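Sanity check. The docking grid for methionine sulfoxide depends on where the pocket ends up, so I'm generating a full predicted complex first rather than guessing from homology. Inputs follow.
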Amino acid sequence: MHYESTKIDRSTEKSVYETLLKSMDSVLEPNIPVISNLSNFIAVLKDSFPKISWIGYYFLKNGSLYLGPFQGKVACTKIEVGSGVCGTVAEKKESLIVENVHKFSGHIACDSGSNSEIVLPIFNNGELIGVLDLDSYDFAAFTELDKIYMEKMLNLLSNKINFNTLNF
Ligand code: SME
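Predicted complex below; grid placement will be based on this.
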């Protein structure tokens, strides 16, 4: 792995995402377990954006979402589809930006300091397998720019790793 966080162009959030889209190639390694790549993927993102207080996966198993690799404080381990922001995204299969989590009916507060979040669906061969959740202590931390680029990052992830080997 040749990734160096010091080489990120930090002038704007867009430039950070553009650099990451190129450098993620050297972070994601073929021939290692999926869980290792999933872990480094979120470590790079958390390291690149100070506004992220928590980032992690919830994967579908037996019809519920279960906590996967994450960076941040201890989090809820099980979320029902349709519940909270993560469960809503799993149900609708569409990304959701929540500018103020306190105004989102049914929001699940794992960390009371969290004020906004973005949740994105994760697909494997067109089938929903989980969601990626990013939280922030700032209000309205995530914008359409994050949605567009995080979806690109997840596409890159899905193309580089084989989710079929994820033994979850
Ligand atoms: N806030 C999320 C729950 C997960 S934690 O924030 C890590 C939700 O409402 O689904």
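Relevant for the grid: The beta strands are 54-61, 64-71, 78-80, 96-98, 116-124, 127-136.
Also worth noting: The radius of gyration is 15 Å.
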